[in-house]
Amino acid sequence: MTPSFTTPLLGINLLVLLFTLYRHPLGLSLLHHSFCSRSTGIHWDYLSCIMWAYVQSFFGRSRSPSPTPPSVTIIGARFPANGSEPHLVSLTTTSEGLSHGTESFLSHIPDLRAFWNTPEAWQSRGIQRLEMTNQPFQNCHGVYMIFFSFALDDLPQNNNFPRELLHSVPFGDVFVVKLKPHEFGENAWAAYDDVSPEFLRLPTMTRRLSSYFREPI
Fold this sequence. Notes:
Strands 1, 2, 3, 4, 5, 6 and 7 form a 7-stranded antiparallel β-sheet that branches. This protein is an alpha+beta fold. It folds into 2 domains: 8-58, no CATH class; 73-206, no CATH class. The chain is globular, with a radius of gyration of 30 Å. The protein has 6 helices and 7 strands, in the order αααβββααββββα. Strand 6 and strand 7 (190-193) form a beta hairpin.
């Protein structure tokens, strides 16, 4: 006679089910409702779902974390708050702390903490899109991102950046980086390009104002 494993397996399944119901916050109440209600039979479909969910959690089945973009080094334009000459600078991108920021759609942005010095200035950063067309230098056409800070208590006001290009008064150094024509690449991460030296020679970028309005009009 061929041995049957039906009874032992049924017993093991029942033990697992009971243990699952004991551990699940709604398990005992559901079991009580199944046996004590006047409905026909036990709610095996609900009980099976709970058991399977517990088995999945027991073996640690979870979604793999979303990939993060690697840091890339790009050339951007820096407009110092101290009034010194704007210049090109090497910048490295970061994805740290972008999950809930206004620039989270970019997935990674230039890491400007070394220039703004304080954590508050970094956390109070702002971003604005700038599209350049009809410029004397063709390689300057494209989409740019302007990065600045609102931290008026930690950084000096920046009067060294063309005011008409920003909707807000910037504090600390202002940075401009360029996106590639397709703007986004793999995994919808921002695709950055290098800012060309001619960018700082554009008439739009050489205009300065002696001061921003700081007092009520």
